[in-house]
Specification:
Elements: H1 2-10, E1 15-22, E2 27-34, E3 41-55, E4 63-73, H2 76-85, E5 99-106, E6 108-121, E7 127-128
Length: 136
């Protein structure tokens, strides 16, 4: 997780982005082409509960991203706050799982909350990011 957060902060603060859907499993695929690296960084987000996208009306496939943030939400209170923002019904007794919160800003504004995240850099195999237990 720390390595991917470092990559987001250093390489994905000035990158082009293509968004697609992996048809067999419905995962959101974020393909970043950083300005200062020859290797693409790809994130595959699944089990998502939030997908917000705002962009200009152009039909360009690539979007400039000026900043990318990745957070791990492990606090039950923080997670409930995110769910309430999206008008989910929240029961305090319902068990919750930690989630990843990905935000991109630039020519596209992207906000994803997902329960599973895998990533790769260049030609390397995808690595799944592990989730810790939720904190009360």
């Amino acid at each position: 997780m720390e390595e991917l957060q470092r990559i987001c902060k250093t390489l994905l603060s000035n990158a082009d982005l293509v968004i697609s859907i992996d048809v067999p499993n419905g995962a959101i695929v974020l393909n970043f082409a950083p300005a200062i690296s020859l290797e693409d960084i790809v994130m595959r987000c699944s089990k998502y509960t939030r997908l917000r996208v705002a962009k200009t009306a152009d039909d360009d496939e690539w979007f400039f991203v000026g900043e990318t943030k990745l957070e791990l939400i492990t606090s039950k209170a923080e997670l409930q706050k995110l769910l309430v923002e999206d008008r989910w019904q929240v029961n305090c007794d319902t068990p919750v799982e930690p989630v990843f919160w990905i935000r991109c800003e630039g020519a596209i504004m992207l906000d994803i909350v997902c329960g599973a995240l895998a990533w790769s850099m260049g030609e390397r195999e995808f690595q799944s990011v592990s989730l810790p237990a939720i904190a009360d």
